Amino acid sequence: MMTELGVYLAKKSASKAEIAKKTGISKSRISELTLNPSTQLRVRELYLIALAIDANPGEVLKEVCKDLKLAQK
C-alpha cells in the first residue's frame, strides 16, 4: 500500500532515486515514506522533497495531509 506521499510522487512521475540524490534523504527513507503508512513524515523532509520536484511545499502538504480533519466536539 502506498502512502499519500507515494501516490503524489507517482502522479508527478518523480524518481525516488533522484529525490534522494537532490535532498540527501536516503533511498531507504524515501521508500519508507512512500510505502509505509505508519511512517511519520518530517516537515523538513516534506520541504526538501517539494524543492527536489519543483513543487510548492504548501501544495505537497495539502495533498499529503488531505485526509486529516479536526476532531469533532
UniProtKB/TrEMBL annotation:
Domain HTH cro/C1-type, residue spans: 5-62
InterPro entries in UniProt: Cro/C1-type_HTH, Lambda_DNA-bd_dom_sf
Protein name: Helix-turn-helix transcriptional regulator
